[in-house]
Amino acid sequence: MIKVLLVDDQTLIRQGIRLLLELEPDIQVVGQAADGRAALVQVEALHPDVVLMDVRMPEMDGLAATRALSASHPK
Question: At what angle do helices 36-46 and 62-72 cross, to 10 degrees?
Fold first, then answer.
């Protein structure tokens, strides 16, 4: 099972992607976050295999969050 964390500031986008991913039997959406800072917290709590992240978000954008995640979780 592939555990996925969805990160996007738009709720409808997150919901739509979640619905699509849940059609796949080997994918489980384990969490969602509305900005990069929340994503960092969710990664620590949920240990997803994949983080699907929007680039433009408030608080901390996807690029900054991805840099932070790559530094703290190189795999």
Answer: 30
Q: What is the pTM of this model?
A: 0.90
Q: Tens digit of pLDDT for each residue in 50-60? A: 999 999 988 88
pLDDT tens digits, residue range 1-46?
A: 999 999 999 999 999 999 999 999 999 999 999 999 999 999 999 9
37 within some domain: yes
**How many domains does the chain divide into?**
1
pLDDT, position 52: 95
* Region class of 47: left (phi > 0), else alpha (psi between -120 and 50), else beta: left
CATH number, domain of 15, equals 3.40.50.2300
Q: Which helix (H) or strand (E) holds 70?
A: helix 62-72
The answer to the question of residue 75 being in a domain is no
